[in-house]
Design a protein that fits this description.
The protein is an all-alpha fold. The protein has 2 domains: 61 residues, no CATH class; 51 residues. It contains 6 helices and no strands. Helix 1 crosses helix 2 and helix 1 packs across helix 3. The chain starts with a helix and ends with a helix.
């Protein structure tokens, strides 16, 4: 029963994120709203980490399986994207580097604020 409760907590934040995405005119994905709300709830101790830990660990463990459908779709549309492969790879590499850099800077900023 604990697993059902943990999963329900996560799904409630997902549902709230979906509702916010429909109600607010800001073009932010519903999953981002849900994750931000869950993060704020964890930071403010409204939700304790122990309230979602087991199901969260399970979801992280099965995450690679969630990439199967997108990989199959890429194989399905390969003919359409093959001509644009170089620009796609360049954008992927540059965006990955930017995300790494921003994540590093934010982490350093947070660490400096803690001290």
């Amino acid at each position: 029963m604990k697993y059902v409760r943990e999963f329900l907590i996560i799904m409630i934040f997902t549902l709230i994120g979906e509702l916010l995405q429909k109600l607010l005119p800001i073009p932010i994905p519903a999953s981002v709203y849900g994750l931000l709300l869950l993060f704020l709830a964890l930071c403010t101790k409204v939700v304790k980490i122990s309230d979602i830990e087991k199901v969260g660990d399970f979801m992280i463990a099965i995450m690679p399986m969630m990439f199967i459908a997108p990989a199959v779709k890429i194989m399905d549309i390969w003919g359409d994207i093959a001509g644009n492969l170089i620009p796609i790879i360049v954008v992927m590499v540059l965006s990955t580097i930017i995300v790494f850099a921003v994540a590093g800077w934010v982490t350093q900023w947070i660490e400096r604020r803690r001290k």
